[in-house]
Write a structure and sequence with these properties.
two-stranded parallel sheet, mainly alpha, single chain, 11% strand, 115 residues
């Protein structure tokens, strides 16, 4: 998650990568880029900053809340637009997760309309 000056980070933040993303956007409706975990490498932050939205994926009851909060802080430090969280490995009968997602979605929709 920290900004590092290694070869991979340099390639991902290069003009060539930015140009590739621009070309892909012109050719496809959606471009999905899968990255390593946010807090382990700089890849997600660098690519997230070049994206329209970042969707985080976390396993329910396995990913510590503190780790999710750290990932959000890291993405924000790169100015990556966080579009939401995909919660995997859910147990049936946990409808409060859906209610929270619906609330967060509505909140984000209102923010976009206000802008």
């Amino acid at each position: 998650g920290q900004r590092i000056n290694d070869r991979a980070a340099q390639l991902l933040s290069s003009a060539a990568m930015s140009n590739l993303i621009v070309r892909l956007r012109k050719s496809y409706d959606h471009v999905i880029i899968d990255t390593p975990p946010v807090v382990e490498l700089a890849d997600a932050g660098i690519l997230g900053a070049q994206s329209d939205d970042v969707l985080m994926v976390a396993r329910m009851n396995r990913t510590p809340a503190g780790l999710i909060q750290q990932a959000i802080r890291t993405l924000k430090s790169y100015h990556a637009p966080i579009g939401g969280l995909i919660a995997t490995d859910q147990q049936r009968g946990h409808s409060h997760y859906y209610n929270r997602y619906g609330y967060r979605y509505q909140e984000r929709a209102n923010v976009r309309r206000a802008a």
